[in-house]
Design brief:
- The chain has helices spanning 2-24, 32-37, 197-200; strands spanning 41-45, 51-53, 78-82, 100-108, 112-119, 123-130, 132-137, 142-146, 149-154, 159-165, 172-179, 189-194, 205-210, 221-223, 227-234, 244-246, 250-258, 261-266, 276-278, 283-288, 292-298, 303-311.
- The chain has 313 residues and is mainly β.
- The strands form four sheets. The chain has a seven-stranded mixed sheet.
- The longest helix has 23 residues, at 2-24.
- The chain is globular and about 70 Å long.
């Protein structure tokens, strides 16, 4: 029994050493045998499976809904699609995706919004899809951002902010993502960047990278986590997006914000996986145990896509 126990201890030490080496390489910590067995895959998240929230306007300091207002595109002031557990929605199967804790697809009607509210210890990233988002926070920042703009807020030790659609006749749609930071207690910080249509046209526009990552130099927004955010607008029927190399032990969450696309994954041996068709509000989870190439082809017309790429947990 003593020899067996010593052998087991040796094996455990060897495994711990291997896992540490893999962590230093930026790789996930699943055992090697399971890694090889689990090939790169794509999993569709259909819009019909998302939780839709339409809260009472008074909860966020708004007036009553305006029934019959021709400028409104939805009966309630807010229509929010939750991709993960949030507020009144709780589902253990959809609690998060890697370091991505929240992804909400929000549609806000004219002259409505979210009154001042607090946040702590979260990296909050927002992408404007349509309309104009007016932001104010306790650091003294106040600005209005339009389509293609990205903003980030390191909530850290605590910050208050508000978000409103100040337009009298146009709806506002934005994607808000909460990313778990590397460490807690960071000083609050805010920043934004307005990307041009040319930056996003038929190419991956790299809008968010990681603080301290030399490979992210030149990326306009940096957050305190190993995550990258890309946006593209495919223009013209049959247009293909250049392949994106999703590396081994990385994963990505891809959201079709507008239009229709097909997602084609390819493993390191050049074998194609099944194509995944996405329409407006659909999403797709992508996993790369080896090198994976992603190619998107619109089913027709134009398409607007957002992708968050991160280390696999």
């Amino acid at each position: 029994r003593g020899a067996s126990s010593a052998t087991q201890k040796l094996r455990r030490r060897r495994l711990r050493r291997q896992l540490k080496e893999r962590e230093r390489e930026g790789c996930c910590t699943r055992p090697r045998k399971r890694q090889l067995a689990a090939m790169a895959a794509a999993k569709k998240v259909p819009a019909s499976s998302l939780f839709v929230s339409e809260p009472n306007p008074r909860w966020f300091g708004n007036r009553e809904n305006e029934a019959g207002n021709a400028r409104w595109t939805n009966a309630n002031w807010l229509k929010s699609r939750f991709h993960f557990s949030f507020a009144e929605y709780s589902d253990r199967r959809r609690d998060s995706f890697g370091c991505l804790r929240v992804l909400n697809d929000d549609l806000v009607q004219p002259m409505r919004g979210f009154g001042k509210h607090p946040h702590r210890n979260m990296e909050i990233v927002t992408y404007v899809v349509e309309g104009a988002l007016t932001h104010k926070d306790s650091t003294g920042t106040e600005e209005t951002l339009r389509r293609g703009a990205i903003q980030f807020m390191t909530a850290g030790t605590g910050v208050y902010h508000s978000e409103h659609n100040m337009s009298a006749d146009s709806p506002l749609r934005f994607i808000q993502m909460w990313i778990e930071p590397r460490r807690l207690g960071l000083p609050p910080n805010y920043g934004s960047y307005e990307s041009s249509r040319e930056e996003r046209a038929n190419r991956w526009a790299h809008l968010v990278g990681s603080v301290g990552d030399n490979g992210a130099q030149g990326v306009p927004v940096a957050v305190h986590q190993d995550v990258n955010l890309y946006v593209c607008e495919l223009e013209g029927e049959g247009e293909e997006l250049p392949a994106y190399p999703l590396k081994r032990c990385r994963q990505a969450y891809l959201l079709c914000m507008e239009g229709e696309v097909e997602v084609q994954s390819r493993d390191g041996d050049g074998k194609d996986g099944d194509a995944v068709a996405l329409a407006r509000h659909d999403a797709c989870q992508l996993f790369g145990e080896r090198e994976v190439a992603l190619a998107l082809t619109p089913s027709g017309g134009n398409a607007h896509v957002l992708m968050l790429e991160m280390r696999k947990r």
